[in-house]
């Protein structure tokens, strides 16, 4: 089984993906890490993130050790990821890795922006997770507060809106729900309630699949 989970920043897709993977015994890939690793590699080498050729080279050079760097989670890396991810050659260089991950038994939960539309268009289950920009900014602010870092909520909200705008309006693999995706709005749902809602969707899909196969 492949579960594709897409949605904007801080919608709760990563939290949901980890819980679903644990519940069904599937492997989990946070595809955002791949784009973050490209940005981080460029930042480390002092390259201009807007240089599409350098970004494509960095994407082809990514190796598994790059995916473990704690600096991947920083705000700057997330911003950088949303810049390099608009380059078609970057997306092309990262496609195979994701498809191979999805194809390995026993199946996978992959979260990102284009998993249901481009990477795994035949996924058995597709979820599109959303939440209001204000709620997403509140969640990111809370994460910073919990880490003892300074918080500027207005700046976080502006970041989130800028990232939504770039991700939804790029020409290659823009953020949008697949035609057969089920929308999960987590604005007023805690992680546990969102998980239970997602399991209900998955169980319904599995039952429908079994009925179709036996009928
Ligand atoms: O965790 P958060 O939602 O903040 O970001 P992320 O999932 O780590 O993704 C960082 C950036 O990578 C996003 O803003 C997208 O521009 C890009 N990305 C993408 O283009 N396609 C994906 N499948 C995953 C991430
Ligand atoms: O992966 P994505 O960027 O979409 O979001 P996340 O990292 O799963 O969630 C962002 C933050 O919101 C985390 O601190 C989660 O604990 C929190 N969260 C929440 O408050 N309510 C949910 N339903 C899901 C996540």
Automatic annotation (TrEMBL):
Occurrences of domain Cytidylate kinase (ranges): 3-192
One Pfam family, short name: Cytidylate_kin
Main location, first listed in the record: cytoplasm
A GO cellular component entry from the record: cytoplasm
InterPro entries on file: Cytidylate_kin, Cytidylate_kinase_dom, P-loop_NTPase
Binding site for ATP: 7-15
Entry's EC annotation: 2.7.4.25
Annotated localization: Cytoplasm
Molecular function via GO: ATP binding; dCMP kinase activity
Record's catalysed reaction(s): CMP + ATP = CDP + ADP; dCMP + ATP = dCDP + ADP
Swiss-Prot/TrEMBL keywords: ATP-binding, Cytoplasm, Kinase, Nucleotide-binding, Transferase
GO biological process: pyrimidine nucleotide metabolic process
UniProt signal peptide: none
KW Ribonucleoprotein (keyword) present: no
Coiled coil residues, start to end: none
Family (UniProt): Belongs to the cytidylate kinase family. Type 1 subfamily.
NCBIfam families: cmk
Descriptive protein name: Cytidylate kinase
């Amino acid at each position: 089984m492949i579960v594709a989970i897409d949605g904007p920043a801080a919608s709760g897709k990563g939290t949901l993906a980890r819980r679903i993977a644990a519940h069904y015994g599937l492997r989990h890939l946070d595809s955002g890490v791949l784009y973050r690793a490209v940005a981080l590699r460029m930042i480390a080498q002092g390259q201009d993130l807007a240089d599409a050729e350098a970004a494509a080279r960095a994407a082809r050079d990514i190796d598994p050790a790059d995916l473990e760097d704690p600096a991947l989670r920083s705000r700057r890396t997330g911003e950088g990821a949303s810049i390099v991810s608009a380059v078609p050659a970057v997306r092309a260089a990262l496609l195979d890795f994701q498809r191979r991950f999805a194809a390995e038994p026993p199946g996978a939960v992959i979260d990102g922006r284009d998993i249901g539309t481009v990477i795994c268009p035949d996924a058995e289950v597709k979820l599109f997770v959303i939440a209001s920009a204000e709620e997403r900014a509140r969640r990111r602010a809370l994460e910073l507060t919990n880490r003892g870092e300074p918080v500027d909520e207005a700046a976080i909200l502006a970041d989130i809106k800028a990232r939504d705008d770039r991700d939804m309006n790029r020409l290659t693999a823009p953020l949008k729900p697949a035609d057969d995706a089920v929308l999960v709005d987590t604005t007023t749902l805690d992680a546990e309630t969102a998980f239970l809602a997602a399991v209900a969707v998955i169980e319904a899909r599995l039952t429908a699949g079994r009925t179709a196969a036996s009928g």
